[in-house]
Amino acid sequence: MHVPDGFIDAPTSVATGVVAAAAVAVSLRGARRELDERTAPLAGLVAAFIFAVQMLNFPVAAGTSGHLLGGALAAILVGPYTGVLCVSVVLLMQGILFADGGLTALGVNITNMAIVTTVVAYAVFRGLVKILPRSRRSITVASFVAALLSVPAAALAFTLMYAVGGTTDVSIGKVATAMVGVHILIGIGEAAITALTVGAVVAVRPDLVYGARDLRQRLQLRVGGELVDAPAAEPAVPVAARSSRKVWAVGLVTSLVLAGFVSFYASASPDGLEKVAADQGIDKKTEDHANADSPLADYGVKDITDARLSGGLAGVIGVGVTVVAGTGVFWAVRRRRTDDASPTVVENV
């Protein structure tokens, strides 16, 4: 659902850019409460994994494909604020390096794919977790439903933006019907990928899943006729010492394999937005990407003629750049939290 330049007019693009910038600023502050020394590097990995899986377009209907948006997955794994940042990092890397998603439409894409999907998915997820039995299976089920609903929500958000600032005169009713219809199908794929990924991590390291933090039951003691939380028992091995390097390594290798090898077999059919745009005529004023001559444009390495090698190398580079950029951002946010929490020493004169 990467919106190119020319779909949305300048005033609406600027307005969504302001919304996106404000949401990112709020998320930077909120992410300080979500990240710790274990989850900061994992958040960078989540961004890289989303980048890799977004290269795997899957068929959803005749002549149409879809790909992961990632907002639900990121929000459940690392938290809603950090999730917005994860998807935003991916979109920034894709727009600058791979000419995927317009630069003037960056605000539109962040609003649709990072903000709307994350907010809708996490709201649905938290609501379901509260009413479902407290179990790992419930986390997986809630992840599936949340991801499923987040995709048509983003499609509807794009339709509303197009109704306000679309550059062609088309029937908004037809666009809405087509966008929501095809993205419900894409949402099924999104839900399956999200539920499988969250379920896999919860099965081995539930302590690393932000959305599963309520699975740990607190011991309560009756004091003076009232139940109070008992002090947490000191673990035999400190939590900080429980290395997450294995999870990080497995996730990175998986991302590299998906982007560097499996992506070659992805569907070549246009994705949901491209298909609707062509069918409904909303792509008549599409503009060439400002970075169309990038060495990595269209997910291929310039001057490498072998399609498999070119695409695979571009995918590997993309995963590497995204994990480095994402990890750098999240470590900086984590360090800012540590600095803010440091006590201030006042010297007597």
TrEMBL record:
It is found in: Cell membrane. InterPro entries: CbiM/NikMN (IPR002751), PDGLE_dom (IPR025937). It comes from the Bacteria. Its main location: membrane. It is a multi-pass membrane protein. Keywords: Cell membrane, Membrane, Transmembrane, Transmembrane helix, Transport. This is Energy-coupling factor ABC transporter permease.
